[in-house]
């Protein structure tokens, strides 16, 4: 068994402007924005300070961010004063390597500042892989089908995702080898996407270690909500409840739509769309939970494009609004009141349609049916009533 070198340095690349993560009213670079009260960059530094094998940590920052970095008030004997990076990530890493050259560490880990959730286990796996390889990085197998389209419009080929992996950081190397490779790469007219690509180009042997889906890179505004949830768990979310009620009369026909399912009957429900009273009530319940008005606000009956439309369109829209807020649907409950048709045998199909429309498990959907005991317009079989409730979790700062 080989002995691990004693001198291990970390370069934290924080020289980007983080513009893709800007949201309305927020122009602060993402690495200096806070997640659960602490800046992203500070959390990334913390992750490496927590590992006892790390001897040196060197932040590489943008020339405009000196004051923002100083405001973090990071202090530790292993933490070096930040240096200024270059115009690209590749150039910034090279500046970091040059700054570390006088110390000549045995190993160097290169970490994206925007990945604050790297775990001790991942760091340890990369260091262990460097005992037998020139380089190492955590990776994740791809789960989506990958299409290649050179013109960005028409698919040319479907890639074999079994051979494709998503790269994460830290990417670790033997210092002398990656420094030499970076110096050579700087002389060619080509921009490399990460340090592992430079190592591959230079002929170094790079191992893959097991990645972690929690080690995600904060890139877009919605990633901050995900980061808050990762740290705070349920404390970052709040539960909201909405209710919905709808009624439609019968008119001559041969079937009704209820819960997205066509049910043969001696009449149909009257309405501008397919008059699915259950989905209308459910859509209103979801919209109410997130303060988005009712179905008529989003799909006015005066708009002829919705004439005869399937109500699953309305439900899908409500679910999309929840997702756009970083929320999730916890459970849905629908009660259908009618004398006829009989509903019970259609309930499993309704739950399936609703679940598939919203991208949730069918076990989160409950549908019940009852009668009005022959009382009122329901009892006279003049129409159908539906009542619904929706429980939704959304980020607390929504």
From TrEMBL:
Per the record's keyword annotation, is Metal-binding included, yes or no?
yes
Q: Look up the EC number in the record and give it.
A: 2.7.7.60, 4.6.1.12
Name a biological process GO annotation.
isopentenyl diphosphate biosynthetic process, methylerythritol 4-phosphate pathway
Q: Which cofactor does it need?
A: a divalent metal cation
Q: Where is this region: 2-C-methyl-D-erythritol 4-phosphate cytidylyltransferase?
A: 1-239
Q: Which Gene3D superfamilies match?
A: 2-C-methyl-D-erythritol 2,4-cyclodiphosphate synthase (3.30.1330.50), Spore Coat Polysaccharide Biosynthesis Protein SpsA, Chain A (3.90.550.10)
Binding, 4-CDP-2-C-methyl-D-erythritol 2-phosphate: 246-248, 272-273, 294-296, 370-373, 377, 380
GTP-binding: present as a keyword of the record?
no
Per UniProt, a divalent metal cation binds at 246, 248, 280
The UniProt record lists the 2-C-methyl-D-erythritol 2,4-cyclodiphosphate synthase domain at 240-392
The record lists the catalysed reaction(s) as:
4-CDP-2-C-methyl-D-erythritol 2-phosphate = 2-C-methyl-D-erythritol 2,4-cyclic diphosphate + CMP; 2-C-methyl-D-erythritol 4-phosphate + CTP + H(+) = 4-CDP-2-C-methyl-D-erythritol + diphosphate
UniProt region (2-C-methyl-D-erythritol 2,4-cyclodiphosphate synthase), positions on chain: 240-398
Give a short account of what the protein does.
Bifunctional enzyme that catalyzes the formation of 4-diphosphocytidyl-2-C-methyl-D-erythritol from CTP and 2-C-methyl-D-erythritol 4-phosphate (MEP) (IspD), and catalyzes the conversion of 4-diphosphocytidyl-2-C-methyl-D-erythritol 2-phosphate (CDP-ME2P) to 2-C-methyl-D-erythritol 2,4-cyclodiphosphate (ME-CPP) with a corresponding release of cytidine 5-monophosphate (CMP) (IspF).
- Return the HAMAP family for the record: IspD, IspDF, IspF
> NCBIfam families per the record?
ispD, ispF, PRK09382.1
Q: Family membership, please give it.
A: In the N-terminal section; belongs to the IspD/TarI cytidylyltransferase family. IspD subfamily. Belongs to the IspF family.
Name it: Bifunctional enzyme IspD/IspF
């Amino acid at each position: 068994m080989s002995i691990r070198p004693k001198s291990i340095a970390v370069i934290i690349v924080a020289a980007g402007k983080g513009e893709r993560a800007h949201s309305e009213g927020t122009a602060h670079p993402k690495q200096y924005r806070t997640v659960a009260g602490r800046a992203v960059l500070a959390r990334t530094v913390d992750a490496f300070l927590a590992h006892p094998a790390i001897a040196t940590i060197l932040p590489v920052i943008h020339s405009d961010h000196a004051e923002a970095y100083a405001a973090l008030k990071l202090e530790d004997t292993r933490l070096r004063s930040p240096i200024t990076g270059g115009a690209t990530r590749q150039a910034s890493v090279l500046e970091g390597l040059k700054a570390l050259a006088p110390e000549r560490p045995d190993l160097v880990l290169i970490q994206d500042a925007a990945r604050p959730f790297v775990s001790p286990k991942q760091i340890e796996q990369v260091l262990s892989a460097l005992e037998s390889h020139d380089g190492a990085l955590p990776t994740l197998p791809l789960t989506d089908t990958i299409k290649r389209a050179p013109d960005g419009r028409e698919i040319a080929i479907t890639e074999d995702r079994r051979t494709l992996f998503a790269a994460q950081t830290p990417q670790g190397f033997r210092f002398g080898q990656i420094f030499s490779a970076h110096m050579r790469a700087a002389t060619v007219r080509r921009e490399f996407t990460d340090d592992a690509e430079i190592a591959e180009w230079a002929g170094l042997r790079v191992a893959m270690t097991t990645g972690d889906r929690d080690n995600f890179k904060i890139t877009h505004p919605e990633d901050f909500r995900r980061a808050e949830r990762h740290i705070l768990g349920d404390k970052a979310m709040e539960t909201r409840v909405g209710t919905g009620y709808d009624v439609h009369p019968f008119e001559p026909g041969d079937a009704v739509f209820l819960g997205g399912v066509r049910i043969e009957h001696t009449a149909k429900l009257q309405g501008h769309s397919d008059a699915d009273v259950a989905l209308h009530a459910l859509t209103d319940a979801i919209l109410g939970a997130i303060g988005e008005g009712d179905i008529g606000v989003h799909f006015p009956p005066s708009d002829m494009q919705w004439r005869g439309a399937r109500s699953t369109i309305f439900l899908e829209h409500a679910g999309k609004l929840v997702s756009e807020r970083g929320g999730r649907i916890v459970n849905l409950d629908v009660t259908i009141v009618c004398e006829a048709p009989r509903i019970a045998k259609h309930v499993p199909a309704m739950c399936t349609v609703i679940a598939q429309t919203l991208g949730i498990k069918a076990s989160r959907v409950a549908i019940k049916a009852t009668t009005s005991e022959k009382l009122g317009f329901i009892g006279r079989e003049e129409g159908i009533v539906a009542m619904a409730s929706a429980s939704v979790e959304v980020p607390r700062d929504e």
